[in-house]
Give the backbone structure.
Amino acid sequence: MNLEFPKNFWWGAATSGPQSEGRFNKKHANMFDYWYEIQPEEFYNQVGPDTASNFYNSFREDIALMKEIGLNSIRTSIQWTRLIDDLEAGTVNEDAVRFYNEVIDEFIKNDIRPVINLHHFDLPVELYHRYGGWESKHVVDLYVKFAERCFELFSDRVVDWFTFNEPMVIVEGEYLHQFHYPNLVDGKKAVQVAYNIQLASAKAIARFRELNRNPDGRIGIILNLTPPYPKSDAPEDLAASEFADLWLNQLFMNASTLGEFPEKLAAVLEKDGMLWDASQEELTTIKANTIDYLGVNYYHPHRVQAPAVSPNSLTVDWMPEKYFDEYEMPGRRMNVDKGWEIYPKAIYDIGINIRDNYGNIDWFVSENGMGVSREERYLNEAGVIEDDYRIQFIQEHLYWLNKAMAEGSHCFGYHLWTPIDCWSWKNAYRNRYGFISTNIHTQVKTIKKSGHWIKNVAETNQVTLEDTLIKTIENN
Ligand code: BGP
């Protein structure tokens, strides 16, 4: 069976400034740079973001490899901590301007569409220490200054913009579940930070519409939509699933596409005394500045059940998880290295949800992928990593994506995380995701089997699936 994809479909991959460039010549440290400085033992093998995958120095060679495997679009991010010299005034650093100009020009010269994101978990740490970071509306305005500089400098050539990557991960990592510095557990702050980031996104969109220099220019947001699936049809499990969806997905999705936060969520937050501080003027800005299109990062589903303890009887501090518990579905398929369930059909459910509930807005898969450790296990005699598991993972997700598209969902592309193995936050280089491998000691980069495979897909806009694989897909 051949899956057919439209001409001009985006076949590409995503990375970020902090995970690929390395710290070279950066004036400011971001949250992760700082965390590594003070607690390197928190990072896998104590490998930090300092060299990352050396993109700052080797971007021409790296882009040549991306071109060689047929990718027609790449997402990366501009680092606030690199571009801006004076964070309050929003003045730019000349070396950073040179660097990003050269990167953008190099992509375009190689017929690769540069897709630029403005924030990938990389708040300048000074702004956290001075103002509480995203807790502060002053920081929202400093982010908007940074965004303005990006639009002024690069929107003559960059058509595709995104304001944030996975804002919910910032909320969870920094304020609820302790996997991003400063590792707080504070539900009230978490709610305010979510609101402030949405406000920052809307304000940046407003400025984009004034400053954008390109008639085709578009701006959106990238959300990690992790559909919740309830354990059963029991009313308590359904209620848990509904709240998980409100908090994890609809909060940013509704505000970004429809201009309003979900009323049911706001009502629960209000009842609990947790609602964000918002002014009418801010809400009007959010309403008026919805996105042109959407990026969806999808890795794994959420399986949820009613919380073991009734939300009303909890005496512990407020957390959104008082309304739902995770549920380990028996027999689930796992990527054991990363600890994430593999459930490709969710991509179909996401596509249909966008079609039916969000005005069928244009969207693309902005991240999907499989992090696998010790990939040298799969090296063949020719020195190529035979990552058949990754090819199959992509094929299965494309099968369901293609079905959603056939049923009218407006998806225009698929980006793997990531083009070239890159630094993965606390996990550093433990799990590898790329079409191309990186030796972190020598920085030698080698195309994997999946890189050769995607080239053929990108050239033909077709994905060939064996009958046995289709049976596997349909039985899952
Ligand atoms: C996403 C992030 C990426 C990337 C990816 C893989 O949430 O947007 O930056 O890191 O997850 O996850 P990890 O790096 O934790 O393995």
About this structure: DSSP finds 16 helices and 21 strands in the chain. The domain at 2-475 is CATH 3.20.20.80 (TIM Barrel). The mean pLDDT is 97. The first strand starts at residue 2 and ends at 4.
